[in-house]
Design goal:
The protein has 11 helices and 21 strands. By secondary structure, it is α+β, with helices and mostly antiparallel strands. The strands form 4 sheets. Strands 10, 11, 12, 13, 14, 15, 16, 18 and 20 form a 9-stranded antiparallel beta sheet that branches. Helix 1 crosses helix 9 and helix 2 runs parallel beside helix 3. It starts with a strand and ends with a strand.
Length: 375
């Protein structure tokens, strides 16, 4: 039995642990919230701050391997543990690059990976001096997630919405499709690629609403996206699972938007719709087993279940009984007791050979299931 730790106990940690039950592994979670979604599913729960050096170092001592469910962890402690022989996946060097959007963009340009033009800004004053670059997207360099830390700057009137700290000002791109490619790399360098998914975002919350697999792309665009995603992750020189988010322009140009070095929202559909899920793949990598099979069993759509606007408090799933009658839908509720507007409370994957059926059922669930608060 290998001892493996996960930094973070949110829904990604929860789904990793649900899959861990299939393997000979003793699981450990480090998380500040002892009521987090993953708390009751691990063998050992340690309460602590994943951003604190001492907490992460003490947690990792004596473990065979460590992984993450969020990038905002203490990388110094992971580097110390790696030097002492603990397997860290992904490698701490990858986290140093990816957790900071400014460093991440520099990585793309340094390795000739196509990405949108950008300027670094350090404060609002510097942002106000870039009017010639608008319209653009302002992204805080560290700490943003799920649409937080991102602002659209259409013109000079929007400058006040920007961030008064180190940020990336990215030229707004004319986007025809937003897609994601998940890639797994084993500890021996073996590579497995999941089919690209097409993502549709909630324009208000600026986070993933639903996605289709496979993505609706021309064949030459598909291969271009796959090749760019591969070159993105190969240059990290690290095992792990990586979600590469890309923009496809109307003329077929493909640009890398962001990369996540972990299991990701864009891979949730793989639990039911693919032979080896993204979560299964992580355990294969951590335990040094062969990579799994990434082919789709059936086309799918994955829909996020979000907290309804205007509600905050103890979560109530209105309409769930009726939605559970849908035969080709698979529901995952994350066990979060408290809801608020836009909070990820769960997801549902729908499988069908018919695209029209996928979209119909996704729309039915989107309007038939609401996460509200208990009065």
């Amino acid at each position: 039995m290998q001892k493996v730790g996960i930094l973070g106990g949110g829904q990604l940690g929860r789904m990793l642990l649900q899959t861990a039950a299939n393997y000979p592994v003793e699981t450990y979670i480090l998380e500040n919230d002892d009521h987090c979604p993953a708390a009751h599913l691990c063998h050992h729960f340690i309460k602590g701050d994943i951003r604190d050096y001492d907490a992460v170092y003490a947690f990792g001592k004596g473990l065979d391997a460590l992984t993450i469910e969020i990038e905002n962890v203490n990388v110094d402690a992971l580097e110390a543990l790696e030097k002492e022989g603990v397997t860290i996946i992904p490698r701490p060097s990858v986290l140093r690059t990816i957790r900071n959007k400014a460093a991440q963009k520099k990585y793309y340009t340094d390795h000739q990976i196509p990405t949108a033009a950008y300027i670094l800004t350090h404060n609002i004053q510097e942002l106000s001096e870039q009017a010639h670059f608008f319209p653009a997207v302002h992204k805080i360099a560290e700490g943003g997630y799920d649409g937080r830390g991102v602002q659209i700057i259409e013109n000079e009137e929007d400058v006040a919405k920007g961030f008064d700290t180190m940020s990336v000002l990215e030229k707004k791109v004319d986007v025809a499709r937003e897609i994601a490619v998940m890639i797994a790399i084993s500890r021996s360098g073996e590579i497995a690629i999941y089919p690209a998914v097409q993502m549709v975002f909630d324009k208000t919350l600026n986070l993933l609403d639903f996605q289709l697999c496979p993505a609706d792309l021309e064949e030459k665009t598909y291969w271009k996206a796959e090749a760019i995603a591969l070159s993105t992750v190969k240059n990290f020189n690290s095992p792990g699972i990586f979600a590469v988010e890309l923009f496809v322009t109307p003329d077929g140009e493909v640009l890398v938007n962001e990369t996540a070095p972990r299991v990701h929202n864009s891979g949730h559909h793989t639990i039911e719709a693919h032979y080896s899920s993204q979560f299964d793949m992580v355990w294969r990598i951590l335990l040094n087993y062969p990579l799994g099979h990434t082919d789709a069993i059936m086309p799918s759509v994955m829909l996020n279940i979000l907290g309804k606007e205007g509600y905050s408090g103890d979560a109530v799933y209105e309409g769930l009984d009726e939605m559970l009658k849908i035969e080709n839908a698979f529901f995952h509720l994350y066990g979060k007791k408290q809801t608020k507007a836009g909070r990820k409370m769960g997801h549902v994957t729908i499988m069908s050979h018919e695209k029209a059926d996928l979209l119909h059922q996704a729309n039915k669930i989107k309007h038939g299931l609401s996460v509200i608060a208990k009065e």
